[in-house]
Amino acid sequence: MRLRLILPVLLFLGALVSVATGQQKASVDDVLLRVSGSGIQDLSLSHEAFAKLPRTKVDVDVGDGKHQRYEGVSLLKVLETAGAPTGGKLKGKSVATYVVAHARDGYQALFAIAEIDPDFSGSEVLIADTVDGKPLSGEEGKLRLVVPRDKRHARWVRMLERLEVVTLT
């Protein structure tokens, strides 16, 4: 009987604290991308939070003379938001950091953090949410990694849902 009385009070107090601090928990359905790993802050980006990050576009050759324009957020910017070492912080032990991109269907691709950072490689990897001005859908999922400088598109992870940051010790 006491639990029945205490539980609603605890839920109310939790909601009150969330409102007072401006924190709102996103439901599982609201999470577009999760970022976790060693030496970073776990991050769950909602559609709204992802849309507020700086946007970029890239035109790519997708084969057979066809070109597409992908738009989204730089993978590096998402990793910076989570506190991953980039730019001037990418030295010493942090150079042995890598990122595993996980797709909803179990597909995975690996990136050394140095190859993602334009200060090292001059390349940019994009987390795209639109192609040719339209939202991604169908088998591409809501997000897709686009790696313009890769000659083969094997690391163009469709249905992207999670990034895992790992630093070797």
What does this structure look like?
It is globular and about 40 Å long. Residues 1-26 have low confidence and may be disordered. It has helices at residues 2-21, 47-52, 75-81, 113-116, 118-121; strands spanning 31-37, 43-46, 55-63, 66-74, 97-103, 108-112, 126-131, 134-135, 144-146, 160-167. The longest helix is centred in the N-terminal third of the chain and has 20 residues, at 2-21. It is an alpha+beta fold and 169 residues long. Strands 2-1-10-5-6 form a five-stranded mixed sheet. Strands 3, 4, 7, 8 and 9 form a five-stranded antiparallel sheet that branches.
Attribute tags:
single chain, 169 residues, alpha+beta, Sulfite Oxidase, Chain A, domain 2, 5-stranded antiparallel sheet, 36% strand
